[in-house]
Design goal:
Layout: E1 7-10, E2 13-16, E3 21-27, H1 42-55, E4 59-63, H2 76-92, E5 96-100, H3 104-112, E6 117-120, H4 127-134, E7 139-143, H5 164-188, E8 189-190, E9 193-194, E10 202-203, E11 209-210, H6 232-241, H7 255-268, H8 284-305, E12 312-315, H9 324-332, H10 334-338, E13 345-346, H11 352-358, H12 367-380, E14 384-387, H13 390-404, E15 409-417, H14 422-433, E16 439-444, E17 447-450, E18 461-470, H15 474-487, E19 505-511, H16 532-538, H17 545-551, E20 566-571
Parallel strand pairs: 3-4, 3-14, 4-5, 5-6, 6-7, 7-12, 13-14
Antiparallel strand pairs: 1-2, 8-9, 10-11, 15-18, 15-19, 16-18, 17-18, 17-20
Length: 573
């Protein structure tokens, strides 16, 4: 289950994990594996991102390059053109935005536009990416992408012959083979480097060694070094499968693209074998040594480079170079990965192995199976789930969490009225809040009279703040508050003035451990720091509310600079 001792600092936000967090997938691409083209238009992408926030997503992960098996690499300029307008618009609405990119230039631009998280599918193996994130305050997601099975080794039969003639003959054969290898070396060179020659390891500031990419070496006989060197027939087949954007160009040594092409072939091709397995799944030990070893090594490298530990999240990278069997092994070992102590992401949404275990062929139809896999991961310690269908998963999680995890949390609700019997309206609202499922009223402020705010040509308001405990998710609680407003006669139609007269007004101000953005709900309430008619009643419920909210990242104005000043008391609740 979620570990409430972990926190994740992402720029100006701090995420706690007293409940699992939902990351909504927003692919601004024409060719993603399950939703390619649906949100390629920036306006459509922004609208969909806001809809996911209003449905329950905590984070929006924006990506401009598909990394599905067989993907076509996108150059950083085109990727930035796709994602930056979306990142800027969502951040402006208070969203926690993650930029899903492996290009440092795109990451830098996105963080400048308001992104709070860098999600690097290459696991921060690029020293330039490490250099950037160490100078920022954004959260980072270290993902493992690469094959996890050990390379097959063939063993020749050895026959011992102790005769001197055999010894001399063996030495002659070795000398001839060495001479042949030396003769072949010039032909095997490409761009001044031997094929198969190990890549030098990059060094980070402080002498920390940055490991090479965990993708394995490209297969020289089957993987061209670049798309330009691929056979014409292969290029034609690729063009029929995915029509790349004009700006998309394959990089000469794109290890991720090569690895994902190999992964696609392994999944799709049937390789007959006479060796029968005795077990349904491969041994987990070598697989987890590779995955957990890479994740922990990269996290430590980031820490040594200057990235604080509480900014780091890890992701085992399901589907990236892994077979269905290997992905199941990794998911079953979620508890071991969670024990590393970093926030852990479960990013299995609609992946091939989910289709394999559920029997669902179409990726877009795998959401129900995705929810099942995510639930297993949450129970084993995953903190964040990355899903395409955020609205459905939010309902799924709210239902499960309400029954399985008792978790009362403190929240504050502001109550105001300037029509009819103002104090009676406030008391009626309090009584109805106490009837909300999984919610109780724990305290109430006195009722105060205040000047109108924002719309001055109206009667004075009666205001109070109610402290509650609730086990409901913030958006579910908000819906219940809106029902109370409607029952007490609040007019929220378009013809009503936004800040005009109302029989009752209920604002969810703050909830313990919750940060949220979007059109429907912002937490903490974005105007709480300028409203005297909220801050003064809060003084009845807590010591120094201005200091409390400043500590939680809210700008609080001095009393003389606020709106809706308190002018008197109207009695107790």
């Amino acid at each position: 289950m979620a570990n409430d001792s972990k926190t994740w600092r992402c720029g100006k936000y701090e995420l706690s994990f007293d409940r699992p967090r939902i990351m909504g997938v927003l692919n601004v691409t024409p060719d993603s594996f399950s939703d390619g083209g649906e949100h390629f238009d920036p306006d459509a992408a922004i609208e969909y991102g806001l809809a996911m926030l209003d449905a329950g997503a905590d984070i929006i992960d924006v990506g401009g390059e598909s990394t599905r098996p067989g993907f076509t690499p996108v150059n950083p300029d085109e990727e930035a053109r796709r994602v930056l307008p979306v990142v800027r618009a969502l951040a402006k609405e208070g969203a926690i935005v993650s930029i899903d990119t492996r290009h440092v230039a795109v990451a830098k631009a996105a963080v400048r536009c308001g992104a709070s998280i860098v999600n690097d599918v290459t696991g921060f193996t690029d020293p330039k990416m490490v250099e950037f994130v160490k100078t920022s305050t954004c959260g980072v997601i270290v993902m493992h992408a690469g094959e996890v099975a050990a390379p097959a080794r063939t063993h020749a039969t050895v026959q011992l012959d102790t005769s001197a003639a055999a010894f001399v003959a063996e030495k002659a054969r070795e000398a001839a083979a060495e001479a042949a290898r030396e003769a072949e070396k010039p032909a095997r060179r490409r761009r001044g480097k031997l094929l198969g020659e190990p890549k030098p390891e990059a060094k980070l500031p402080g002498g920390v060694v940055q490991p090479s990419l965990p993708f394995g070496e490209p297969e020289p006989t089957s993987e061209p070094a670049s798309e330009q060197e691929a056979p014409a027939a292969e290029q034609a087949t690729a063009a029929e499968t995915v029509a790349p954007a004009p700006e998309a160009a394959s990089e000469p040594n794109d290890h991720l693209a090569a690895m994902m092409r190999r992964s696609a072939r392994r999944e799709e091709a049937y390789v007959p074998t006479s060796q029968l397995r005795r077990f349904t799944l491969p041994d987990s030990a070598p697989i987890m040594r590779r995955v957990m070893g890479f994740l922990s090594d990269q996290a430590r490298a980031l820490i040594h480079a200057g990235v604080s530990r509480d900014r780091i999240c890890i992701d085992p990278g399901p589907g990236f170079g892994k077979t269905a069997n290997e992905d199941i092994v990794i998911q079953r070992e979620t508890a071991k990965m969670a024990s590393l102590g970093y926030p852990l992401m479960c990013a299995v949404s609609r992946k091939r192995f989910v289709g394999a275990v559920s029997g669902v062929t179409e990726a877009a139809e795998r959401d129900a199976a995705t929810f099942g896999v995510c639930l297993g991961a949450i129970q084993a310690g995953a903190n964040i789930v990355r899903v395409h269908e955020a609205a459905g998963f939010a309902q799924f999680l709210n239902g499960y969490w309400a029954v399985a995890k008792p978790q009362p949390r403190r929240a504050f609700v502001a109550v105001g009225s300037n029509l009819g019997h103002r104090c009676d309206n406030i008391r009626a609202a309090r009584d109805m809040i106490a009837e909300i499922p999984l919610t109780c009223v724990s305290n109430s402020s006195k009722i105060y009279e205040s000047e109108p705010a924002y719309e001055m040509r109206q009667d004075a308001f009666a205001n109070a703040v109610i402290e509650i405990k609730t086990e409901l998710a913030p958006l579910v609680l908000l819906d219940e508050l809106m029902k109370i407003e409607a029952e007490l006669g609040r007019d929220r139609s378009k013809k009503a003035k936004a800040n005009g007269p109302r029989t009752i007004d209920l604002d969810l101000l703050w909830m313990d451990g919750e940060t949220h953005g979007g059109k429907k709900l912002r937490l903490p309430h974005p105007l709480i720091g300028e409203r005297d008619f909220v801050l003064v009643p809060l003084e009845d419920l807590m010591h120094d509310p201005a200091r409390f909210f400043r500590y939680n990242g809210v700008e609080v104005k001095e009393p003389e600079d606020r709106v809706g000043h308190i002018v008197g008391e109207l009695g107790r609740m």
